[in-house]
User: Fold these one by one.
Assistant:
Number 1:
Amino acid sequence: MATAQAKAQTIEITYREAVREAIRDALKRDDRVFLMGEDVGRYGGCYAVSKGLLAEFGPERIRDTPLSESGFTGAGIGAAMAGMRPIVELMTVNFSLLALDQILNTAATVRHMSGNQFGAPVVIRMATGAGRQLAAQHSHSLEGWYAHIPGIKVLAPATLDDARGMLWTALQDPDPVLIFENVMLYNMTGKLAADAGPVDIDKAVVRRAGKDISLVTYGGSLWKTLQAADALAAEGIDAEVIDLRSLRPLDDATVMASVSKTRRAVIVDEGWRTGSLAAEICTRIVEQAFWELDAPVGRVCSEEVPIPYPRHLEEAAIPQAPKIIAAAKAALGRA
Amino acid sequence: MSAAADKPRLSRAHVLDLLKQMIRIRRFEDKCAELYTREKIRGFLHLYDGEEAVAVGVIPVLEKRDRVVATYREHGHALVRGVPMTAVLAEMYGRLEGCSRGRGGSMHLFDHASNFYGGNAIVGGGLPLAAGLALADRMRGEPVVTACFFGEGAVAEGEFHESLNLAALWGLPVLFVCENNLYAMGTALALSESETDIQRKAACYRIQAEAVDGMDVVAVEAAGRRAVHAVRETGKPYFLECRTYRLRAHSMFDAQLYRDKAEVEAWRLKEPIVRFQGWLEANRMIHADDLVRIEAEIAAEIAEAVAFAESGTWEPLDQLTRFTYADKAA
Ligand SMILES: Cc1ncc(C[n+]2csc(CCOP(=O)(O)OP(=O)(O)O)c2C)c(N)n1
C-alpha cells in the first residue's frame, strides 16, 4: 500500500472526515449507493460522520431511519439483494445486536443457502470500542463476535488511508461487509494524500518493522500498540507491529511471516479475553508456527467486566500501552 | 388497469386452473409426507394442508417481474410461483439439482428465475427483507410489487412492526399477506395476541388492510387482485389477512396436544379444495372427467419429480464451503 507520505499532495484531515469523504465519493461514483441509519441525515450522524451529506445528496440517499435496527438493516440487505448498494450505519456495535438476526440469519446465509442464486452486497458500518465514558451499553468491542460468522467480511480501519479507502472496495464486494470504526479514532488528525483512493480489504500490514517480537493488533488498539513499541524501542526492544485491518478473513500469511521472524508474539485486542479474536489468532499461531516460537504467545485484552463509567476504571478495563509493554517484556523474559 | 381487472374472471379454464393448483399442492405434499416417513426427506417439514387457497389465490395475480418472500411453509408458494416441482422435491432430498443446490431443504426454497426470495425459517425474518426489496424498486421507480407471506405468529415479532412502519413511512410497494391459521406451533392466537383481529394492526401504521376468508380461493383471488392492484397503483403497502387453518401438524414432530381432534375435523369440512370443488360441481362448471384428467396430470408430474429427485446427485464434498462467499472473479 502506498503511504500518504509517498504522495505529493496531502491534506490535513480527521478520521471522521476521511470516512465522510469515502461515503461522499461512493455516492458520487455509483447511483446505487445510499446511506441509511438512525440520525444519519438531519442530525448529521451520532458521531457526526455524515454531517453535510443530506444537503448534498438529499433525503432519498441520506436516509434517516426510525429506531428499528433489525428492520432497516434487513431493508438494507433486501435492497442489496435487489441490486442497490446500501451503506447501513448502526450507531454502535451494542445496538447492532438488535439487527443480529438480519446480519447472521439473512445476510451471512443467503448466498450459501440459496445455492449461489442470491447475494447481499451490503456494507454495514458501526462504531465500536470504549474510551468516551459511555459506560456498559455503548462501549463494547464485539467485532470479534462478527468475525466468527462465515458469509460476512469484517474490517477494522485504523488509519486515515483505510478509513478513506476501505469503503469503496467493500462496496465492490459481492458479499456483506461490516466495517468497525473505533470511537476513539474519529477525532484523530493526520495527513492523507489528496488523491487517496480505494485500498485492499484482505491484507494485514506491518505498521512498524521490528525483529524482536510481533505485536498483532487492529482498530483503536493500533495506536496504543505503536506507542508501546516506541517505549520498548527506548529499552532496546525492537517490536514489529501488525495491523490486521481485516478481521475476517484473517491474513494468516502476514502474521506467520512476522512471528517466524521475531519468534515471539503478543496479541492486543479490545474484545474480552475469553473466546476472543485474540484467542483465535493465538491458536492459529500455535497451529501454524508453533516450532518457530521461543515463548508462549501473550494476550492483552479487555478485562472481563462490562465497560465501567468512571475514567480510571474504563481505562483499566481496556488495553493500554503499559500493559502491552509489560506483556511484550514478559514474552521476552525481561519482566 | 381498470376496476374490471380486479374482478375474478371465472371462466371454466380459470376455475379449473385454480382447482388444479390447489390439488397439485395437496397431492405433492401428501407425497412429501410419505417420503418423509420413508426418510427420503429429513429435517423439518411444514405442510400447507388446508391453506392452499392463499398461495393459489394471491401468487398468480402477481406479474413475472414481481417478487415473493415466503416462510418455511412455502412449498405451495414455490410451486404456484413456477419453481419446477422437480427442483422443489430434489431440494427436499438435498440433491444438487434442487432449487437451492440442496443446501436449503424444505424450509429454504429459492429461485432466482421466478424472483422467489425464500424460504425464511426465522419467524418474522422475511418482512424486513421484503421491505428492502421494495425499497430498491421504489428508489429506481420500478412498478414492482413484493409479496411477503408470513404466519400470524410473526405478528408478535418486533420485525413485523418495524417492517410495517418502514413500509408505510417510506411508501414501499409491499403486499403483506398474513396467513392466519390460528396457531403458531402450539400457541393459539388468543394466547399470544392482545388484539386478535390482526388486520387492525396494519391500521395503526396507516396501511390499507382487509381480512378475507382464506378457505375460499375465489375470495382470496379477488382480494389479492384488489391488493396487488392497489400496491402497483399507489406504490404503497397493503395488508391482506387470510383467515385459514392448518389441518395437519405444525411439522412432522408435532403431537398436536394443543387442540382437539374435533376442532380439526370441523375445519376439514371447510377446507378449500372440497369447498371449491363442491361449488364448481353445484354450478356445473366441472365434469367428472375434468377431475380424472387433473389427478392424472398431477400424478404424472409427481412421479416425474420423484424420479428426478431419486436420480439426483449429491453436492461433491469438496464444494462444502463454496458459495459461503462469491467465487473470486477469474
Ligand atoms: C424467531 C423464531 N422464533 C421461533 C421459531 C420456532 N418456530 C418455528 S415456526 C413457529 C410458529 C410460527 O407460527 P406462524 O407464524 O403462525 O406460522 P405457521 O407455522 O402457523 O405457518 C415457531 C415458534 C422460529 N423459527 N423463529
Note: Residues B 73, 121-123, 151-154, 179, 181, 183-185, 246, 250 surround thiamine diphosphate (CB under 6 Å).
Number 2:
Amino acid sequence: MSIEVKNLVKAFGEKKVIDDVSFKVNDGEILAIVGFSGSGKSTILKLISNLIEKDSGEIITSGGDIAFVFQYSALFDSLTVYDNIAFALHERRDLRKKYTEKQIREIVAEKLALVGLKGIENLYPSELSGGMQKRVSFARAIVTGPKVILYDEPTAGLDPIASTLIEDYILRLRNETGATSIVVTHQMSTIKRTADKVIMLYDGKIVFSGTPEELLKMDNDYTKQFVTASIEGPMKMVGA
Amino acid sequence: MALIRHILKQTVTYKLFKSILVNLVDFMEVMGNITTGLFEVIKAFFRGELEWKELINQCERFGISSLPITLSIVGMTCVIIVSQIAQEMVKQGGGNFVGALVAVLIVRELGVIMSGFAIISMIGSSLASELATMRVTEQIDALYTLKVNPYGYLFLPRVLAGMLMMPPVVIISSLFGILAGALTSDLAAGLSYRVYFDSIWIGIFAKDMFVCLAKAVCFGAVIALISCAFGFHASGGAKGVGIATTRAVVWSFVAIVIIDMLFAIAFFF
Ligand SMILES: Nc1ncnc2c1ncn2[C@@H]1O[C@H](COP(=O)(O)OP(=O)(O)O)[C@@H](O)[C@H]1O
Ligand SMILES: [Mg+2]
C-alpha cells in the first residue's frame, strides 16, 4: 500500500510546522525522513496516522491499519509485555471476540520471535532495557498485520549494536510483511542501512529528496550541513 | 503607534481584562473537556465497551484502597464534633439528642462530603496523574493508533467504579463515624451507648438516606470524570502531570461542594 502526501500544511498557533509538503512512498518501500529536532518530523507521522488533524492538503492511504512505533516506546506500563502486545486483540472492538486466548498466545509469541525476543511475556515494560522496550513496541504495533508502519526515531538513544538490531528488524518486518514504512531518524547508520528514499525537512519544508547515496554525495548545502553535522550552513538550530 | 500599544499593555485595566479573558477561555475549555468526557462515556457504555475485569480493578481501587483514609477522616470528624458538643448538651439537658445530632450531621452532610474530600485526595489525584502520565508518555496516542477508544477503555470503568463504590464507601464510613461518636460521647460526657443509639433515628428519615446515596453516586461520578478529564488533556512532561493533578483536585473539590449545595437547595430548602 502506498502513501501519498500532497501539499500538507499544519500550523500550531501562528507557526507553520509543516508547510506545503508533498511526497510519495511506494508499496513496500522504506522512506527515511531526516532533519534536526523541531523540524516537524514527528508531526508528519502524527498527521499520517490521524493523531492530529491537518490544516490542509491531502494524505492518501488505501485504508487498512497504520502501525505507529513511538519514539519512547509508549508501552502501557501497567500491563505486562504479553498484554501490551495482545492489546489490540483484547481491546479493539472489531477484534475482541475474534481469537481465542490460545490463538492470541501463539500470535504474541510469533510477533515476539519476529523481533528476536522470547519468554518475556510476564515481565513489565519497566523491567526491560530500552532496546527491548523498542522491540516490544514493534511487536505491539504489528500485531494486527498493518500495511503501513511509521517509526518515530526508532534508534534514538540506543547503543550502536542495539541500533543495528533495530535496523535489521525494520528491514525484516518490511521483507516479511511487505509493509510500506516511514522511518523518522537523524542517525546516518539507520538511513544508510534501511532507507530506499530519503527526504530532509527544514523549517517545515522539504529541502532534499532522493536516495541515501544522493544524500551522501552532499551536492546541496542542506545535505552537506546535515551529513557533516556542521553548525555552519543554511539551517539554523533554534534554541539548541 | 507601537509605543502607545506598548504603554497601553502595561496598564492594570489591560492586564485585568486579559487575565479575565484568558481565565474565561480556560474555564470554557475545561467545561468542554468534562462535558465531552461525559457524553463519550455514556456513548461507550451503550456501545458495550465496558470491560468487567477493568471495572472490578477500578472498584477495588476506588472502594477498598481508599477505606483507611475515608474511615479515619469521617471517624475523626465525629470525634471532634462530639467532643465539642457532648458535654455541653448533657449539661443543658440535651444528652438524649447527642446521637440524633451526630446522625443528622453525618447522614445529611458530613459523611458524604468528608468521604468525597478523602476520595478526591486519594483516588482523584491518582486517576489524574495516571492518565496525565499516559498522555505525556504517548500511551494515549498509542491507544488511538491501536484503534482503542480511550473513553471506553480508560474513562468508562473509572467513572462507573466511582458511581458504584462511592455509596458503599459513604455508608461504611458514616456507620464508622456514628460508632466513633458513641465512643467519644461515652468518654467525653459519660453518655451511655443506649441513650446515644436510641436517639439516632429521631432525626433521620428515609429521604435523608436517599438524598445521601444520590449525592454519593453523583460525587463518585464527578470526581472520577473530572480527574480523568484533566489527566487526559494534560500536556508538557512531568510538570504537565503535576499541573493536571493539582487542577483536577481543585476542580473536584469545588464541584462537589457546588453539587452538595444544589442538593441542599433542591431537597431541604
Ligand atoms: N501539540 C503541539 N502543540 C504546539 N506545538 C507543537 C505541538 N507538537 C509539536 N509542536 C511544535 O512543532 C515543531 C515540530 O515538532 P516535531 O514534529 O515534534 O519535531 P521533530 O519530531 O522533527 O523533532 C516544534 O517546534 C514543536 O515545538
Ligand atoms: Mg520528534
Note: Residues 222 and 235 of chain A are 7 Å apart (CA to CA).
